[in-house]
Specification:
- The complex is a heterodimer of chains A (175) and B (489).
- With 175 residues, chain A is of the alpha+beta class.
- In chain A, strands 1-2-3-4 form a 4-stranded antiparallel sheet, with no helix packed on it. Chain A has a 3-stranded antiparallel sheet with strand order 5-6-7.
- The longest helix of chain A is centred in the first third of the chain and has 27 residues.
- Chain A is elongated.
- Chain B is α+β, with helices and mostly antiparallel strands.
- Helix content of chain B is 45%, strand content 25%.
- In chain B, helix 6 packs across helix 9, helix 7 crosses helix 9 and helix 13 runs antiparallel to helix 14.
- The longest helix of chain B has 27 residues.
- Classes of the chains: A alpha+beta (175), B alpha+beta (489).
- The interface between A and B is large, with 58 and 68 residues.
Amino acid sequence: MPFINTAVDLSALPAAEEVILKPIHHSFLVLLRIEWAIASCFLIIVAVLLLVFVPFIFETHWWWIIVLAALAVVIPYGLMQEKSFPYKAYAVREHDVIYQKGWLVRTLKICPFNRIQNCTISSGPLERSRKLASLILYTAGSTGADMRIPGLLQKEAEQLRQFILNKINGAIELH
Amino acid sequence: MEQLNFIDWERPQRQPIKGLIIVFVKTLWQVLKTVWPFVLLMIFNAKPGRSERYALIAAALSIFAIVGSIIQFIYFRFYILNGELIIKKGWLKKETHTIPLHRIQTVNIEESFLHSALGIVKVGIDTAGSGITEASIDALTKPMAEALKAQLFENKEVVINADQINTPAFTPIIKLSGKDLLKLSLSANHIEAFFILLSFVIGMYDNIKDINLPFLPDEATILASKSLPVFAFLTVSVLFITIIISSARIIFKYYDFTLAHRATDYFIRSGLTNVKERMVGFEKIQFINWKANWIRKKLGLFMMEYAVAGTEEMKAKMRVHVPITDSENIPLLMEHYYPASSQMEVSTVSIHPSYVVRRFLFAGLMPAVIAMAITWQWWGLYSLFFLVFSFYIGVSASLYKKKFQLSTSHEALLINDSVWGIGKLLLKWYKIQNVSMNQSLHQRSKNLATIVLDTAAGPVKIPYIDIAAAQQIMNYSLYQIEHKNKKWM
């Protein structure tokens, strides 16, 4: 179903969807599991505190709603983390960065270098313990952090950042 | 100031010690914003005479904020190296922000009450990105802030157009007459105002009914008097008040509306009591859309919007709506963005029927059923009115699908996104910032996808189209952005 009929040969354009993507580092899955465990513990503590400090909940038998709500968050959250991990992958092309994510809703996002405003490397204590970092790219788009590639090795993230910055500067020189 | 010229910006700089107070206040505020529900819960759940508990909470929060702010203060550094502003912060969560100097659009020096009391300023750095991308230095002495600003713009090319120097007079395009204003106000979307008024009245009634005001009828009286004439009278009254209110809103907003242009920008002036004047540079316009509801379509009235680049807060303030009372003005208003005479080719891309079904089920029926379940206890059969809402969503989605049309050229794409009246969106390819292709499980099973073309003024979505068409739009957008390397602003 062609959507345009111009002099540009659409079939000859580089196809972003056909690029072989590089999966993010496998250590990131361990990190996701730890994050899930911490978040679950936190939620369980909140639920227990509510049950202990708000007597109304026990009196009205609302306690089982609290328990169900906690389970309804913890189980799907863990499942989503596990299932979506294999789909997190990225690729760097000559003119852009591609990042894929999502299990239920699959998203393929592409940020051209000549639209990137700045880039940031972020690494929390858990990421640092595994020598991992996240690379965050910002364009002037309206959706906040436009691309966040987690689970990169720190050295790899730094190399990517430098490569992208060189590309940004190169794009400016072309004007 | 003389000494400040010798600041070695390549060496990591810290904020002045007074900045610790600013950082403390900011941290305390963040801590309070996070924990206030728990604090309230503990305070209200505590037994009388336990004032030490509150003191303990206050002390714990203060200590947390003090330690947090000291850590933040110590680990905050900024410097300029190889044409980049680098900001490093964080102890547990380390962050390095890198902003190429040529990407910096504006450097704002701001002063809150606390800043001026301490004799310092805040420096905000805007890179034309979204609100989150902006970097800021919470505290600097004013001379240092000025020196930093000068340093950030040291090598920035300043382009001054000859027309701006001579400031030629603006040529008017649109000036609303009294008659135009009346037509515009009467044809406004009164339904929106009706629901705002209705929810306000219901909210007010709920708040004051417990006070037992003698003039306020109780629910039994209202229910007893629900004969047809009373109901009709009430409905007509609310509708009448609604039309008056929403018409007045339009008159106050668009009174004496004037739009003029010159070589590089538009000048817009309007308002009755609060007169607003705005200048919009042509290059700041990211996309244009023009709409008309069913009544306005019949009257030949349109509302055009110039979607302008900026941060989220800026966008709300900068949104430029232009009322058009003569459709012949549309080409004139498009001229500086994309000439209306340019040829566009209508594509065969269409929205899949499952879009209508999914919208009806998930955006219409599901919320309606939840709302019915919640309100059934109080409203009884009246809760069924939520079903009307779900049918409205379903019919809207069906009309959107039916009227959807995508036209393209080498320069731009035009989307017909009307529902009840007319709606068109014009976007130049090179204004796109990034592209996404989304597929839910259902879409994957049907070989469909939703394309999101994100711009600096907001995203443009093309939902539920064939996967092959989606991939072509994605790849063609990237080709246009990367191949031409045109300045988008």
